[in-house]
Amino acid sequence: NAGVTQTPKFQVLKTGQSMTLQCAQDMNHNSMYWYRQDPGMGLRLIYYSASEGTTDKGEVPNGYNVSRLNKREFSLRLESAAPSQTSVYFCASRLEYGYTFGSGTRLTVV
Amino acid sequence: AQTVTQSQPEMSVQEAETVTLSCTYDTSESDYYLFWYKQPPSRQMILVIRQEAYKQQNATENRFSVNFQKAAKSFSLKISDSQLGDAAMYFCAYRRGYGNKLVFGAGTILRVKS
Predict the structure, then answer these.
(1) A53 touching B, CB under 8 A?
(2) Which residues of A touch B51 (CB under 8 A)?
């Protein structure tokens, strides 16, 4: 099925641990995004990649790094997880006006 | 920076009735796009409707329509003949014309009563 695939769907981390959230799309979209969703704050952009080989900071990039491995894949890394990074994370890709979102990763940092 | 404001954290509507969700935005751009997304409990983000700022005609998709007031920077969503399946979180979003970033409001939870 065409779309955006995120893994894992759920994760619990201890403070200070690291992990990488994976995202892949099979729609040949150039642009990809990572958002976080917190109650009362909507979705906020962490990082985005306008095309393969480029990445840019969004609204809330602190504590995160990203890699645009190829046109299909865009990963988000937490080097040292903090409780403030407890959130639901969404990956998305875009072609012109249409954004396609993954199903999200619920991350809890304890 | 562009901002999107949804002033209604929660709304309720009786099944088969009409409800309007509010959204205002702040921008100095003349070319932009506005969106409404639905997020049911499954967490999936579903595009409901899109409006191009250069179009004067309000967008409509079946039971969903918008009231786009460009001068007032207002973009409300009207849901007619509400159904139980419409219960979800609704997000208003903005994107600059040639921009990349989608900016979201805080969301409105819509509850549908039978």
Answers:
(1) no
(2) none
Q: A72 exposed, middle or buried (CB, 10 Å; 0-12, 13-18, 19+)?
A: middle
**DSSP secondary structure string, A22-65?**
EEEE-S--SEEEEEEEETTTEEEEEEEESSTT--EE-S--TTEE
Residue B15, min C-alpha distance to chain A (Å) = 26
Tell me, yes or no, if B9 comes closer than 8 A to chain A by beta carbon.
yes
Tens digit of pLDDT per residue, chain B (114 long)? 789 999 999 999 999 999 999 999 999 999 999 999 999 999 999 999 999 999 989 999 999 999 999 999 999 999 999 999 999 999 999 999 877 889 999 999 999 999
How distant is the Cα of A42 from the closest Cα of chain B, in angstroms? 4
- Residues of chain B positioned with their CB less than 8 A from the CB of A50: 100
| Rounded distance between C-alpha atoms, residue A100 and residue A33, angstroms | 10
Q: How many CB atoms lie within 10 A of CB B5?
A: 13
